[in-house]
C-alpha cells in the first residue's frame, strides 16, 4: 500500500518513524548510562546476549495482540512462572504476585494492600529519606501522610533503625524500606526494620525496583556475601517490588510485585480486582517479553549479567577516583554509582557530558548536582571513553559556592536527561 486512508504515504510514514527513532536516541544505546529495557547485548562474558534479547523481543511480538482477560491464559501462566521463580529465590515458601508496569505501580499496589488490611481511611507511612519519589506520589494518591525519616548527619545512604521506630505513629499503616536505593544503590537495614515492623504489627514493603534482579545473584554466587538480609528471609517483610525492566533486562513496562503468601495477594485483589494491579486490561506483550528473559537466562544467566554490570561499575568507580576533585558516594551494593564532588560545582561538567552525547541521570542531591550512572552490559566498551570525557569536562568545573554559574544552569531537575 503506497497511501493510507489518512492520505499519509508509506515513504512519508517511514521517514517520520525514522526521525522519531533518532529523536529517541535509540541508535546511541551504548552511550546511555542509565537505561531501562531489553538492552542485554553480547559481550565476551555474555556470548548469548543478543540471542536472548532477540528471543525476548520475539515473545513480546507474538503476544502483542494479547491481554490478560479473555486471551490471557498464556500470559497468566507466564506471570505465575516469573513470580514463582523470583519469589522462591527471595526466600518465600509460597510466593504470590503479579507482573506490574514497574516500580511505581508495584509500590502503589503494596501500600494500597497494607491500607486495606489496616482497614483505615487515612493514615501514615514511614520510610527513610532515601525512598524513591514514587513513595511520595502514592501517599498523595491514597491520602496517606509520608513520615520521612532523615538520614544520619553526613551519611545520605544510611538509615538509623531507631529513628524509624521513633517515627511510627498510632495511625501508621506501613513501613517501606529499599534494597537498591535511588541513587545511592544502598540496602536499608531491613532485618532491623523487619523486627520493628513485627513489634508494632505493621506491614513492611521492600522497594527492590533496582536491587531485586541483581542482589540475589550477587549474594548467591558469593560475589558479595556481606549484602545485608533484605528479602523474605527477614520475617517481617510482607511484599517486595523488583523491576524486570531495570536489572531484569526485560522490555518495558514490566515489574514484579511479590507477596509473601497467597493471602496477601488475595487482599490486594480485594482492593484492586481482579489482579491486584492498578490497571484493568494489561498487555500480554511485556509479560511475554519478561517471561522469555527469565526463562532463557535463569539463575546462571542473571548471575553472569549481574557480574558484568558490576565489573563495568567497578571500572567506572576506579576511574572516577583517579580524577582530582571527584568522589563516588559510598554504600552502593549494586550497579548504581553516584558521582559528586565536595569541592567543585559540577553543573558545567554535567552539561559538557550531555553535549558530548552521554545519557545519564542528574540529581540535585548532593547539591548542586550529582551524576548518576547505572552501567549495564550494553555499556560494554564505554567506560574508558566516558571517563576520558569526564576527565576533560572536570576542567570546566567551578569552585563549589563560587556563585558564578549562569542563572540558566541553576535549575537542575533530578531526572534532567
Ligand atoms: C528505588 C526505585 N523505586 C521505584 C522506582 C520507580 O520505577 P518505575 O519508573 O518503573 O515506575 C524507581 C525508578 O527508578 C526506583 O529507582
UniProtKB/TrEMBL annotation:
GO biological process: carboxylic acid metabolic process
InterPro entries from the UniProt entry: GrpII_AminoAcid_Decarb, PyrdxlP-dep_de-COase, PyrdxlP-dep_Trfase, PyrdxlP-dep_Trfase_major, PyrdxlP-dep_Trfase_small
Cofactor(s) of this protein: pyridoxal 5'-phosphate
Molecular function GO terms recorded: aromatic-L-amino-acid decarboxylase activity; pyridoxal phosphate binding
UniProt keyword Lyase, yes or no: yes
Keywords carried by this UniProt record: Lyase, Pyridoxal phosphate
Family from the record: Belongs to the group II decarboxylase family. Sphingosine-1-phosphate lyase subfamily.
Entry-annotated residues carrying N6-(pyridoxal phosphate)lysine: 246
Stated name of the protein: Pyridoxal-dependent decarboxylase
Amino acid at each position: 500500500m503506497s497511501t493510507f486512508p489518512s492520505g499519509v504515504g508509506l515513504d512519508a510514514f517511514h521517514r517520520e518513524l525514522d526521525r522519531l527513532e533518532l529523536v529517541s536516541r535509540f541508535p546511541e544505546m551504548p552511550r546511555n548510562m542509565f537505561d531501562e529495557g531489553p538492552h542485554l547485548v553480547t559481550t565476551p562474558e555474555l556470548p548469548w546476549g543478543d540471542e536472548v534479547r532477540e528471543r525476548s523481543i520475539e515473545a513480546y511480538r507474538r503476544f502483542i495482540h494479547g491481554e490478560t482477560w479473555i486471551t490471557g491464559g498464556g500470559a497468566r501462566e507466564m506471570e505465575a512462572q516469573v513470580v514463582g521463580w523470583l519469589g522462591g529465590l527471595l526466600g518465600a515458601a509460597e510466593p504470590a504476585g503479579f507482573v506490574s508496569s514497574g516500580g511505581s505501580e508495584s509500590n502503589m499496589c503494596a501500600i494500597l494492600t497494607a491500607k486495606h488490611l489496616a482497614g483505615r481511611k487515612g493514615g501514615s507511612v514511614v520510610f527513610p529519606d532515601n525512598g524513591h519519589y514514587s513513595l511520595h506520589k502514592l501517599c498523595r494518591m491514597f491520602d496517606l501522610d509520608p513520615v520521612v525519616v532523615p538520614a544520619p548527619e553526613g551519611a545520605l545512604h544510611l538509615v538509623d533503625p531507631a529513628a524509624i521506630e521513633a517515627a511510627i505513629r498510632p495511625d501508621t499503616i506501613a513501613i517501606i524500606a529499599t534494597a537498591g536505593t535511588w541513587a545511592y544503590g544502598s540496602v536499608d537495614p531491613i532485618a532491623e526494620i523487619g523486627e520493628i515492623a513485627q513489634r508494632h504489627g505493621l506491614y513492611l514493603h521492600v522497594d527492590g525496583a533496582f536491587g531485586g534482579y541483581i542482589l540475589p545473584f550477587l549474594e548467591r554466587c558469593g560475589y558479595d556475601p556481606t549484602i545485608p538480609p533484605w528479602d523474605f528471609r527477614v520475617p517481617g517483610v510482607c511484599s517486595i517490588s523488583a523491576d524486570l525492566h531495570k536489572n531484569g533486562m526485560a522490555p518495558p513496562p514490566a515489574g514484579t510485585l511479590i507477596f509473601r503468601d497467597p493471602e496477601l495477594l488475595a487482599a490486594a485483589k480485594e482492593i484492586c480486582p481482579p489482579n491486584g494491579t492498578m490497571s484493568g486490561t494489561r498487555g500480554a506483550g511485556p509479560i511475554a517479553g519478561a517471561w522469555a528473559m527469565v526463562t532463557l537466562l535463569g539463575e546462571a544467566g542473571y548471575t553472569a549479567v549481574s557480574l558484568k554490570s558490576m565489573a563495568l561499575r567497578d571500572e567506572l568507580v576506579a576511574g572516577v577516583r583517579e580524577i582530582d576533585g571527584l568522589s563516588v558516594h559510598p554504600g552502593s551494593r549494586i550497579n548504581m554509582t553516584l558521582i559528586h564532588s565536595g569541592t567543585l560545582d559540577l553543573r558545567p561538567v554535567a552539561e559538557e557530558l550531555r553535549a558530548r552525547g552521554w545519557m545519564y541521570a542528574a540529581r540535585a542531591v548532593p547539591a548542586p548536582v550529582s551524576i548518576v550512572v547505572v552501567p549495564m552490559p550494553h555499556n560494554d566498551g564505554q567506560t574508558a571513553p566516558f571517563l576520558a570525557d569526564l576527565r576533560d569536562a572536570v576542567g570546566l568545573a567551578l569552585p563549589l559556592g563560587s556563585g558564578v554559574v549562569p542563572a540558566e544552569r541553576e535549575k537542575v531537575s533530578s531526572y534532567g536527561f
